[in-house]
């Protein structure tokens, strides 16, 4: 039985009052992108760990600030957001890597003749704001393309057009290539009347750009709590329980996609919909669940190590951001705390 949408903000029963209250800030509105957390809430996995988890939708903002100022205890974001925030002195800490493969893509019409990033020269490329453009910039740098965001470049190879997260705003009339997540905007483009057979989808990992996305994070303050919210448990112990139940939720969601979509539809409201012919909420969330599952079921997840941030992949992400000048130095070691994942899984994280 699906919970009513209001339970996204906590169930409030007498039994719940004995649980430890935890606020988890999502990066966007509830949708299948966050299916594992919704399932962990719906199926009682958080409750089984002694947690009353409140899932907070945020919309077009960064969850970093919400967590840093104490509006939430934990958050969900992308690794670029986390590392750049840490470089700015914010004490955020990575505790689990849920998505093991980037879902970022660049999309063009086949009729445009743009088959690969090498064909971007002289074209207009749509990007997103607020740090979400970094994967696209890394891709163009890998192909030695200058852009209109490069300082001191008078005749850039590529003109970048910044737009909100709706491809209908620009594609294909105002840009030749649009940024798109495989699990969301790609389906929206299809809904605008451009079937996959007419699209060239350039998945960034295929070109060596795999800046990781969905992860769980918190702050040093939370992890250093000796008595989290008077629970008698440390902040690190609470973090480990959150990670354990979240992974359990993701495993269940991926194994039971049809049931999971029905749960998601209970929560996501207007954000359930795609665009045009794909505006049917069930159809769009089914697409999203199928694609988001592929990003979870990759890398260490396939080896039984869901939630692990592979050290070599992390280093590659850091080097990519340094090459763009987004990071000027390696982040401090404290930006990743493997001990939380180890407590959650009972396993040892690799050291190299």
What are the SSEs and their pairings?
Layout: E1 20-25, H1 35-42, H2 45-48, E2 51-56, H3 63-68, E3 74-77, H4 79-87, E4 92-97, E5 104-109, E6 124-127, H5 134-142, E7 159-162, E8 177-181, H6 185-191, E9 199-203, E10 215-219, H7 220-223, H8 235-255, H9 257-268, H10 281-296, H11 311-323, H12 338-345
Helix pairs in contact: 1-8, 1-9, 8-12, 9-10
Describe this structure in words.
- The protein is of the alpha/beta class and 352 residues long.
- Helices cover 33% and strands 14% of the residues.
- It contains twelve helices and ten strands.
- It has helices spanning 35-42, 45-48, 63-68, 79-87, 134-142, 185-191, 220-223, 235-255, 257-268, 281-296, 311-323, 338-345, and strands at 20-25, 51-56, 74-77, 92-97, 104-109, 124-127, 159-162, 177-181, 199-203, 215-219.
- The strands form two sheets. Strands 2-1-3-10-4 form a five-stranded mixed sheet, sandwiched between helices. A five-stranded mixed sheet has the order 7-6-8-5-9, with no helix packed on it.
- Strand 6, helix 5 (134-142) and strand 7 form a beta-alpha-beta unit.
- The longest helix has 21 residues, at 235-255.
- The termini are far apart.
- Mean pLDDT is 92; it is low at 1-16.
Give unreliable regions as ranges: 1-16
Mean pLDDT across residues: 92
> How do the SSEs run, as a string of H and E?
EHHEHEHEEEHEEHEEHHHHHH
Profile the largest sheet: 5 strands, mixed
Helix count equals 12
DSSP E strands, number? 10
Share of helical residues: 25-40%
Round the Cα radius of gyration to an integer and report it: 20 Å
Shape: globular
Strand content: 5-15%
Query: Helix/strand-derived class?
Result: alpha/beta
N-end to C-end Cα span: 44 Å
The largest beta-sheet arranges its strands as 2-1-3-10-4
